Predict the structure.
Amino acid sequence: MISKLLVQPAYFAPIAQYAAILQSKTIEFETQDHFAKQTYRTRCYIYGANGKLLLNIPVNKIKDYKIASTEVEINYDEDWQKNHLKSLQSAYRTSPFYEYYEADLMNIFETKHKYLWELHQKTNAFVLDALQEEKPLSETTEYFKDYADKTDIRSWIDAKKKLNINFPTYIQMFDEKHGFIENLSILDLIFMEGPNAAMYLENLNLNNAFS
């Protein structure tokens, strides 16, 4: 069991991140860092009919790249919420457990949050509720590059980062067509495994990912 976990908030974060969260006693979200593009802050990947599908959140133009992640504003010029929900419905409507979570999911997409951080809080609350888990959560009040007393997985926010984790297979919607796709958004696991998703996360071996 991890004592203290330091993690970047993300948009329906990947399976690995929630495995670390469930295997930790306390979780602290990094809120004092600078925003960076091409991370799981603004994107997640689901299993679509044609394979791995990107869902991306547009944000308002950032003039100062030293802006704090919590100050980044979501852009609604395009109806990305409708598109994301439509993509999720198309991918998972016939999955074993989608219908049990659809109402709560729709509440997220029907609310226009001003800040990306607000959306992160809502998606994390949705996921922990779906997993029937309660975790002590806190936020950083100052930025530090290194920590001696915490397990730091902030680098996992990089969507291009390859984690040294062996992900056990589970049935996915289109795996007969495209095979097993590892470490998708936590939504993929929840919609396919339902109540068993938490057990999968708790048993996932993360040791090599920390080294």
Q: What stands out?
A: The helical segments are 15-22, 80-92, 98-109, 116-130, 175-178, 186-193, 197-203, 207-210. The chain has a mean pLDDT of 95.
